[in-house]
Amino acid sequence: MASSMSSGGGGGGGGGEPMSPASRLFHSPKFNCYVMAVMGCKTSVNHQVIKEGLRETILKHPRFTSKLVKKGRKTRWISTTIDLDSHIIVPEINSSEIEFPDRFVEDYISNCTKSPLDITKPLWELHLLNIKTADAESVGVFRMHHSMGDGASLMSLLIASTRKSSDPNALPAMPAATTVKKDEKHKRGFLMVLFEPLMALWWGLVLMWHTFVDLMMFVLTVLFLKDTLTPLKGAPGVELHTKRYVHRIVSMDDIKLLKNQMNATVNDVLLGITQAGISRYLNRPEFVGANAKKESSSVLKKIRLRSAILVNLRPIGGIQDVADMMDDKSKVRWGNWIGYIMLPFSIATQQDPLEHIRQAKATIDRKKHSLEAVSTYACAKLVLSLFGVKVAAFIIRRVLLNTTVAFSNMPGPVEEVSFYGHPVAYIAPSVYGHPQALTMHFQSYANKMIISLSVDPSVIPDPYLLCDDLEESLKLMRDVVQKKSVEDAV
């Protein structure tokens, strides 16, 4: 018997909530984007239990029980009766006949992306695969259209539907935000306080200059400035190709060790690992040639390789605030508030592996002192209102096509959680539908960091090599730090 229910409250009632300009953008023909989230579980999955859990959490959010309906010139989110059996897919799998289960799951996920979601229904689905892989006993695959919300909001909502494994009634504990000490101001000297207005003025001037330079680079990228053609760079039309999804689990403790020893942030370390891993990958003999190995260092330094990073400008708040979104009477706002940051990667071979982190920290510190994300969001909103979705989609597509990689980091629960009674082994989010051949997401979970890659196999035929290089880069950095600690102790 089909399971069905109606949505409650929120934006679904009455005439429906109008589709935001950013949501319309994600439905443009050449920018039709989806959010994927692969969740490995430590037990076999019970789909009936999952259904009951969804009714009590995610399905209380109006976006998950609303479909898009065109009314006049505007498209609106309209509340509808939802048939859960048409959204939850449980394929019959005979594990004994499958020789390579991990490859089977990867192929299954890739095949899911070949067909669009049914626009006549709420734009999400969940696939439950009872098959044992190297990292899990079963796998759940969420697919949601990007018009439903930005990736950070959707992943936060998914995490907010889990509960601590140690306490089934408690929401997951998330990483604590860094705060400035209140007594820090009192520790400043007299001269610092005296010159504080001048320093604030200088800080503001530098901020304006950095923002201007970043916006000019954004405009130049739209017009003609392209990344170097490398074995990671996709060609026009790459957004239409079927993607392959792989992940690699590394130690969060190793990343924290580097963070503490380098006086850096997790983002600094992850960017450093990424720069080191990509440098190793591009320095492989199959790309530079065995005879050109000596000259490869100078060649790598000449490579322009950038990431156009989507930044969520909507304040999500804590995990409780996100959980409150699933309340029928919730007033928490929802949608796509997205700005862009152009992040240059430093590609080079380094004698000291930790130099990658130092360079990453310098790059991120420079980007923090800029209003690039806010400015690009404001510009995109202005273009949407003046020229419409087609022009805005063309501009954003040009930026992504002229850069190489999509890159992001999402903090997750600091301890193990359960998804409706199913202990979670890992969470690996990704996106597809944008014109880039490589998408890299870092997702922390308990004492793990999951590196999730989405690649165009016609450009990157063996993404495991890139995973190997990223993992090896982390190990080299960890070994250097541990060796220094031992030497300092002696």
TrEMBL record:
Residue ranges with Gly residues bias: 7-17
Catalysed transformations (reactions): a long chain fatty alcohol + a fatty acyl-CoA = a long-chain alcohol wax ester + CoA; an acyl-CoA + a 1,2-diacyl-sn-glycerol = a triacyl-sn-glycerol + CoA
Compartment(s) where it occurs, according to its Swiss-Prot or TrEMBL record: Cell membrane; Endoplasmic reticulum membrane
Gene Ontology biological process terms, A to Z: triglyceride biosynthetic process
Gene Ontology cellular-component annotations: endoplasmic reticulum membrane; plasma membrane
Residue stretches spanning the membrane: 200-225
Region (Disordered): 1-21
InterPro entries hit by this protein: CAT-like_dom_sf, O-acyltransferase_WSD1-like, O-acyltransferase_WSD1_C, O-acyltransferase_WSD1_N
Domain of life of the source: Eukaryota
Functional pathway: Lipid metabolism; Glycerolipid metabolism; triacylglycerol biosynthesis
Residue ranges of every copy of the O-acyltransferase WSD1-like N-terminal domain listed in the record: 75-269
Gene Ontology MF: a single term: long-chain-alcohol O-fatty-acyltransferase activity
All residue ranges annotated as the O-acyltransferase WSD1 C-terminal domain in the record: 334-477
Assigned keywords, A-Z: Acyltransferase, Endoplasmic reticulum, Membrane, Transferase, Transmembrane, Transmembrane helix
Membrane-topology descriptor: Single-pass membrane protein
Family to which this protein belongs: In the N-terminal section; belongs to the long-chain O-acyltransferase family.
Designated name of the protein: Wax ester synthase/diacylglycerol acyltransferase 11 isoform X2
UniProt source species: Arachis duranensis
